[in-house]
Amino acid sequence: MQVIMKSSTTKVFVFVMSTVIGLSIFTLTNSNAYAQQKGFTEEVNLLNQAIPALENHDKNAKKTLFDAEEIMEDKLKDNPDAVTAEKRIEAAIKMVGEDNFQAALDHTNEAIKSLNELNNK
Q: What does pTM read for this prediction?
């Protein structure tokens, strides 16, 4: 009797643990996918970091703009509304290359505005 009880207790324990682990993996996968597809917080933070560099005519702003644009590339297929912001970032990068920091700043601010609107949808 004790052997049977031990065996069924083990089976129940294994079943419960398998269910918990499976649900945890499912939840983590879905929440991570949702966060990657919907939010543009990281991009907005990077663009905000580029603002002081652009105001100071610092060409190092270009790297931060490239970083933001690279992150956005992965999200565009799931977020077609973000294409305008991504194009603005590309334009800002080009303007930095041409030493037109005011235009780069304008494009960056417009990209931030667009992404904030998408974040608030």
A: 0.69
